[in-house]
Amino acid sequence: QVQLVESGGGLVQPGGSLRLSCAASGSKFSSNAVGWYRQAPGKERELVAAITSSGSPNYADSVKGRFTISRDNTKNTGYLQMNSLKFEDTAVYYCNVGPLVTIVTMTGLGYWGQGTQVTVSS
Q1: Would you say 55 and 72 are in contact if contact means Cβ atoms under 8 Å apart?
Q2: Which of 75, 109, 83, 85 is nearest to 95 (CA)?
Q3: Could you tell me which of 35, 22, 11 has the C-alpha nearest to residue 87?
Q4: pLDDT digits over 62-107, tens only?
Q5: What is the per-residue DSSP string for 56-96?
Q6: What pLDDT is recorded for position 34?
Q7: Residue 108 in contact with residue 91, Cβ under 8 Å?
Q8: How big is the chain by its Cα radius of gyration, in Å?
Q9: Spatial separation of the C-alpha atoms in residues 82 and 80, rounded to whole Å
C-alpha cells in the first residue's frame, strides 16, 4: 500500500518561498511519475506540477516559472520548490505517485496523504 507524507508547508508573505517534500513508501517510486496537487477552499483539486520517472517536468500555467518540481529516487522523495508565492497559491498541497497518465488525469489515485497547508498572507 502506498503511503505519502507531505511536509514543508506554512505561512509565508507574498513573494516568499517554500519547499515542499513528499516522502513515498510502498510504491515503485523510481519507475513512476510524481505529481503535486493543490486544493483551495471551495475549489476542486488541481494538478500544479508533475515529473516523469525520467525527470521531465511539466507545470500548470498558473505556476510556470515560479515552481520547480524535482525528485530524489535514492530517498523516494519528491519536492516542490515554490518561489514568488501569491495569495492565490494558498491551498492544501498534496502529492501522489503513479503512472504518468494516472497522475495527470487523477483517475485511479485511490490513496492520498494528509497534505500540507500553504498560506500566503501579508
Answers
A1: no
A2: 109
A3: 11
A4: 999 999 999 999 999 999 999 999 999 999 999 999 999 999 999 8
A5: -EEE-TTTTTTEEEEEETTTTEEEEEE-S--GGG-EEEEEE
A6: 97
A7: no
A8: 13
A9: 6
